[in-house]
Amino acid sequence: MGKGFFEVPIAVNEPVWGYAPGSPERQTVSDTYKEMYNSTIDVPLYINGEHISTGNTATMSPPHDHQHVLGSYHKAEKSHIEQAIATALEARKKWAQMPWEQRAAIFLRAAELIAGPYRAKINAATMLAQSKTIHQAEIDAACELIDFLRFNVQFMTEIYHEQPESTSGAWNRLEYRPLEGFIYAITPFNFTAISANLPASAALMGNVVVWKPSDSQVYSAKVILDVFKEAGVPPGVINMVMGDPVMITDTVLASPDFSGLHFTGSTHVFKDIWQKIGTNIHNYKTYPRIVGETGGKDFIVAHKSSNPKQVATAIARGAFEFQGQKCSAASRCYISKSIWNDVEKHLKADLASFTMGSPEDMSNFITAVIHEGSFDKLASYIDGAKADANAEIVAGGNYDKSKGYFIEPTVIKTNDPKYTTMCTELFGPVVTIYVFEDDAWEETLHLVDETSEYALTGAVFSEDRYELEKGIKILENAAGNFYVNDKPTGAVVGQQPFGGARASGTNDKAGSKLNLYRWVSPRMIKETFVSPTDYRYPFLG
Ligand code: NAD
Predict the structure, then answer these.
(1) Residue 85: pLDDT band by 50, 70, 90 thresholds?
(2) Ligand 1 pocket, residue 245 CB under 6 Å
(3) Residue ranges per domain, the chain?
(4) What is the pLDDT of residues 331-367, one digit of tens each?
(5) What value does the mean pLDDT of the chain take?
(6) Is residue 2's pLDDT more than 90?
(7) Which of 248, 327, 370, 496 to mutate to test the pocket of ligand 1 (most atoms within 8 A of CB)?
(8) Rounded to the nearest 5°, which phi and psi values hold at 339?
(9) Rounded Cα distance, 259 and 202, in Å
(10) Which atom in ligand 1 lies closest to the alpha carbon of residue 510?
(11) Lowest CB count within 10 Å: 90, 265, 355, 514, which one?
């Protein structure tokens, strides 16, 4: 910054639009959906500001309508990845020197493009690619993404303001340099906002990025790319590559200039990548930063004093919105015996009222799961529960993939608190209930803590403050995002920084300053105004 201490606009959360029947926004997004559904797109690689078609393509289809083709995307060869790395490093020469207010302006502009002219398009793309209802698309692709961009700009300036003390004789300055090298962003299918944020947050701090979106999200990733381009992200700063994840990752990790991983996805993939980074450690010019947010086995535990209707609503929303495909989705619930009958009654009534189908029909609450692999896995766990003496299907249990990958929201009840669906992340609309004796509250809290390798989100319900306090204490390390008398999903940028520990990730809290610190390497500059000319100190006489 040359000529002023600039203040950025104060970040505020983007209001969530309602899309009620008859509203103009509902009409616009509906028209956009139809238009996009009835046309096809071609998504090339994006390297150094150029679109590169490789001819080696894969098709894209909506999960709720898998025979319909939305278009195709191009897959990279190894040489394309090497080219993306080389051009990113070349772009770094200018980008890392760009005054921060210019970087801020680009990403604030991206936020406004999404809030305005791109809102319907990015929502419709997310409905088509990831089968989100309009509400789920709006809170992800529009609002959360806008919030990430606006808040991160503000957090960046807060970090830059953090400076050491100085004296009259020496001025101490901290410079928050981008990492030396390039960042590799690998993004999941389930949030358009995460897909954009992982490359954008690193680039905002002055880094250059090779970004690999999920195969199942390329369609909406293309809209993000269009927004970045229009907002003015210069060529080479964010390069988007698709294709074989192992080949791409191995090529990236082989580069001595690899300086950071920004990953969101499943735990085993993250652990494998971490191991590869360790194997290559002697080749790198700098120690790579490793940031990964991964799986969860998120819980709701309800004390006998809690309100059954509130608990049932938390399960209905927390376990089934977006078909349970949120990393934060409740998937194991521990309910006190004396309230279970009421919870069950309300939950069954809620499930009976759910409608399932295409997100184009906006009265649907449930749509399809992401792909056939996920469908088959979920169906096999449901079949397993049907056949197991330790499990009982309380609601749902049907599935059908003839048109789309539809799994009926399913509630399994088990007598075995370590039953497989109480421990394994399924990532779908299946929740398992364990009913505990009313006097086994403390014991159950320890069970919740010890059952899963994950520690992402969790919720405790109780109207008794002493028992609530026990829950908060005993479950201290069981969740990075902990909810009291609320569902464990729906974190909002700037309000509930998000991330988990244990096997769930490095807990660097997306949507907060903590995450941005990982993408800078501070340089301390001490300037002495009048340098000494005699080495002798007074004590020498
Ligand atoms: P995934 O692990 O299948 O894929 C994530 C990304 O990794 C994709 O881009 C994929 O192509 C890539 N990938 C897959 N195999 C790879 C390999 N061998 N080497 C390198 N890259 C590889 O996950 P997903 O199905 O897209 O997303 C769901 C998972 O993400 C769930 O486990 C969920 O809990 C997790 N998730 C976590 C958070 C969080 O904040 N903790 C947020 C969203 C999703």
Answers:
(1) very high
(2) yes
(3) 44-53+78-123+134-294+505-523, 298-484
(4) 999 999 999 999 999 999 999 999 999 999 999 999 9
(5) 98
(6) no
(7) 327
(8) -105, -5
(9) 11
(10) 40
(11) 355
DSSP letter string, 236-248 = TTEEE--S-HHHH
Q: Which atom of ligand 1 is nearest to the CA of 500?
A: 41
Length of the chain: 541
CA of residue 283 relative to chain centroid, distance: 30
Structure tokens at 235: 């060529």
Ligand 1 centroid – CA 33 distance (Å): 26
Residue of 14, 138, 144, 293 marked active site: 293
487/298 Cα distance (integer angstroms): 10
Q: Say whether pLDDT at 382 is over 70.
A: yes
Strand partners, 209: 183, 238
Active site residue 423: no
CA 484–ligand 1 middle distance (angstroms): 28
Q: What percent of the chain has pLDDT over 90?
A: 99
**Cα–ligand 1 centroid distance for 292 (angstroms):** 10
Cα separation of 471 and 199, whole Å?
Answer: 37
CA distance readout (Å), 104 to 267, 493, 533: 32, 18, 44
CA–CA distances in Å: residue 334 to residues 326, 423, 431, 445: 20, 13, 11, 9
d(CA 228, CA 290): 24
**Is the C-beta atom of 396 inside 6 A of ligand 1?**
no
Buried b (16+ CB within 10 A) or exposed e, 446-470: ebbbebbebbbbbbbbbeeeebbeb
Residue 1 — very low, low, confident or very high, per pLDDT cuts 50/70/90?
A: low
293 is catalytic: yes
CATH level 2 (architecture), domain 298-484: 3-Layer(aba) Sandwich (3.40)
175-196 mean pLDDT: 98
CATH code, residues 44-53+78-123+134-294+505-523 = 3.40.605.10
Give the separation between CA 110 and CA 248, rounded to whole angstroms: 27
Angle of the 192-204 helix axis to the 145-161 helix axis, nearest 10: 20
